[in-house]
Design goal:
The chain is an all-alpha fold. It has 15 helices and no strands. The protein has two domains: 202 residues, Up-down Bundle (Growth Hormone, Chain: A), CATH 1.20.1250; 210 residues, MFS general substrate transporter like domains (Growth Hormone, Chain: A, Up-down Bundle). It is 84% helix and 0% strand. It is globular.
Length: 439
């Protein structure tokens, strides 16, 4: 307890415990995102199947649905420092063992599920530890840094680290580096003070409590839904966020096959797609800060939805256009290759910008318009919605892309996006008429 008080009395950036956990988060989140990307590319490269990539991402979502409540119960009754150390250590071990198993496809699925399951316990432990090591008045700054890191880790791991290392050094070097990053995060967690000692041992009692909490959780979700019924704009904000995140998952699953089928390249060259998208997200965030005072959040979302639908149509047209070039010229794109790469780069850049243009305004509206006593439950509903929205598309898109190509998938996604734009139009117009909720 004395350690906790001493840590909390210092500001975040002069707080040794906070800095240790923050750096641990940077290492572990970047490593986790890079691991997901690497496994997607590896499975796609070995199987040449969009279904295999979709299944990999689908299996990474399942543990959060199955073990989310139980993980929260375990964290609440455990030393969070120990949970953070063990979860990072186990992820390092899982990636290290995978490196020794010759990176078999079956092993890739197993490691994917293991890492995703372990992460279910890591996330609530990290969130619960933060208020214990910083002062209440510093929580805003601390959470801002952690949120920035969480989003930046996707760009660093999924868009920069994994694609570059795979392309130039191969999977062995990458997985060795990722195991070292998880191990480094585990060692940093040893600096943390103990927090939340266990009230009881794991066993039938804790399992029973998890069941009780799950039943209670359904009641809380119903309360949140009843509240949301009074605000169509907030309901549509949840839908927009869920659609945007689902599209990212679908694009990630199809990207290796898209590069193979459209550009005629290997799956490791998926960097041609993910890099522009990542930089588009950054550009979108900067643009929102620039135009925020002149454009309402509802208007920003509406514009982003229209442009996103157009970008998806452009992606759908890419393969037929490439095949037309091949029939009229050579078996490969030849001289047209730089043109195709440039056009696809622009389209993916726009895709990333529109993602930021939907997610940021929608989440901001939820944060500002929700009452304090309902906010946590609504964001819990959001987490469930994202998982539920992702399930069906990830089950469908793989087989569809394998049989008919990626074009029908992206056209269908465009229809869904434009349908959401039309369906939520009245709610957005009402928000604009009421003051617009300026950014």
């Amino acid at each position: 307890m004395a350690q906790l008080v001493a840590a909390a009395e210092r500001g975040p950036l002069r707080n040794r415990a906070f800095l240790a956990m923050w750096f641990a988060q940077i290492l572990s989140q970047v490593a986790a995102n890079a691991t997901t990307f690497a496994l997607i590319v590896l499975v796609a490269e070995r199987t040449h199947s969009n279904l295999s990539s979709s299944l990999l991402i689908l299996l990474s979502v399942v543990p959060a649905v199955l073990f989310g409540v139980f993980a929260g119960v375990v964290v609440d009754r455990s030393d969070r420092k120990r949970v953070l150390f063990i979860t990072n250590g186990l992820r390092a071990a899982a990636v290290g063992v995978f490196l020794l198993l010759n990176q078999d496809v079956a092993a890739a699925y197993l490691v994917n599920v293991l890492v995703a399951t372990i992460t279910v316990f890591f996330v609530p432990a990290e969130a619960a530890m933060l208020p214990a090591i910083v002062r209440k008045r510093d929580l805003l700054v601390a959470n801002s840094l952690f949120t920035f890191t969480f989003n930046g880790a996707f760009l660093a791991g999924f868009v920069i680290l994994a694609p570059i290392v795979i392309k130039f050094f191969g999977f062995d070097v990458l997985f060795g580096l990722l195991a070292a990053m998880f191990a480094g995060a585990a060692l940093l967690c040893l600096v943390l003070p103990t927090s939340g000692p266990a009230e009881r041992r794991l066993g039938a009692g804790v399992a029973g409590l998890a069941v009780t909490e799950t039943r209670r959780g359904f009641g809380e979700v119903l309360t949140a839904f009843n509240f949301l019924r009074s605000s169509p704009l907030l309901v549509w904000s949840l839908v927009y966020i869920s659609i945007a995140n689902t599209l990212v998952a679908v694009a990630g699953a199809l990207a290796p096959g898209f590069v193979r089928e459209v550009l005629g390249l290997g799956e490791r060259d998926v960097i041609y797609l993910v890099a522009p998208a990542g930089f588009g997200v950054v550009a979108g965030l900067l643009l929102l800060n620039f135009i925020g005072k002149r454009l309402s959040r509802a208007s920003a979302i509406g514009i982003a939805l229209v442009v996103l639908g157009a970008a998806l149509v452009a992606l759908a047209l890419a393969r037929p256009t490439a095949e037309l070039f091949r029939r009229t010229a050579t078996a490969e794109l030849g001289a047209a290759f730089p043109f195709f790469v440039a056009v696809l780069g622009v389209v993916m850049f726009v895709f990333g910008m529109t993602y930021a243009g939907i997610i940021v305004p929608a989440i901001t509206m939820l944060q500002e318009e929700l009452h304090e006593d309902i906010r946590g439950r609504v964001f819990g509903v959001l987490s469930s919605l994202v998982s539920i929205f992702s399930f069906l598309p990830l089950v469908i898109v793989g087989p569809v892309a394998d049989v008919w190509g990626v074009a029908p998938v992206f056209l269908g996604a465009a229809v869904v996006v434009w349908g959401a734009w039309l369906g939520g139009g009245r709610a957005r117009r009402a928000a604009e008429a009421g003051g617009g909720l300026r950014m």
